[in-house]
Amino acid sequence: MKKFRASINVMPHDNLLDPQGKAVTGAVGNLGLPEISGVRIGKHITLHVEAADKKTAEAKVDEACKKLLANQIMERYAFTVEEG
After folding, report:
1. pLDDT digit string (tens) for 63-76?
2. Closest Cα to residue 7, out of 37, 40, 47, 42?
3. Which residues lie across from 83 on neighbouring strands?
4. pLDDT above 90 (res 19)
5. Which long-range contacts (CB under 8 A, 24 or more apart) does 12-20 make?
6. Do residues 57 and 81 make contact, with C-beta atoms less than 8 angstroms apart?
7. Out of 17, 40, 55, 57, which residue is the most buried by the measure of CB atoms under 10 Å away?
8. 22 pLDDT band (50/70/90 cuts)?
9. pTM of the model
10. Domains and CATH numbers, the chain
């Protein structure tokens, strides 16, 4: 078995309201940074998985995202898997 490291980004769908992002967008303006806008806040997850090969590792990470890490009704996810 090989060890792989997955890096996962989970973000709210673009057409959904992001209250945290909206609050941060307002705050950066109040901090004198009006050039910053359209903030969207999500989560970044890293994990390790043991698998026979990269394709199998990617399938396991995808399954974890679908079943646990992302609410597909409200969020989208993308990930990379690297050996190591």
Report:
1. 999 999 999 999 99
2. 47
3. 4
4. yes
5. 12/40, 12/41, 12/42, 12/74, 12/75, 12/76, 13/74, 13/75, 13/76, 14/40, 16/74
6. yes
7. 57
8. very high
9. 0.89
10. 2-83 (3.30.1280.10)
